[in-house]
Design a protein that fits this description.
Elements: H1 2-19, H2 33-44, H3 47-65, H4 71-89, H5 95-120, H6 130-166
Helix pairs in contact: 1-3, 2-3, 2-4, 2-6, 3-4, 4-5, 5-6
Length: 185
């Protein structure tokens, strides 16, 4: 249920960033809200459901952006696997660690899309602009904390709600666990 909710949330964020943000002035920037959701999914969800969501997000991004088909899902899956690996081996649960992670992952993603597009494109290709990329990274850093808070609240709501549906009674204790202090066997 939570995965379906995040799929529709990602679709809504993608629609907002492709219809509303291009009308904003250039100095405001055009933050990639779907990318923030992708990082959240990589940090907070299980590997299978997060990987499927990441693949769908990449395919949706390809359809909406018009870049070479398959480039965004490949880059998104590479970012997802990298963040999953980092989150298993490092402690990145705090916001102070997540902000640099989002910024560095965005730099990796945008450079991967630029390199992939320049390989497949004609001689004109895409132009790399450090000012645009830095503005995007600053906007992502500003928007990461409130959006992560919102996504945590949504995930918590569905986790609590799902637990009420699945629990019929109290769960039995683990009989193989070592007894705690003051407990008898």
């Amino acid at each position: 249920m939570c995965g379906i909710c995040f799929f529709f949330l990602g679709l809504l964020l993608l629609i907002i960033q492709t219809t509303l943000f291009p009308t904003l002035p250039a100095w405001v920037g055009k933050p990639d809200l779907l990318f923030i959701l992708l990082i959240f999914v990589a940090l907070r969800m299980k590997i299978f459901s997060g990987g499927v969501l990441t693949l769908f997000f990449g395919l949706l991004m390809d359809v909406f952006s018009g870049i070479f088909l398959g480039l965004c899902p490949l880059i998104y899956l590479l970012v997802f696997v990298s963040i999953q690996w980092l989150s298993r081996h490092l402690v990145i649960r705090e916001v102070t660690h997540q902000l640099p992670l989002v910024v560095v992952a965005y730099l990796f993603m945008s450079s991967g899309i630029y390199i992939g597009s320049s390989i497949f494109a004609d001689k004109g290709g895409m132009m790399w602009s450090w000012s645009d990329v830095l503005l995007q990274m600053v906007m992502l850093a500003i928007m990461t904390m409130p959006l992560f808070y919102l996504f945590d609240r949504i995930k918590g709501f569905f986790d609590r709600r799902g637990m009420r549906w699945t629990l019929v009674g109290s769960r039995p204790k683990n009989r193989f666990a070592a007894p705690g202090p003051g407990e008898r066997r």
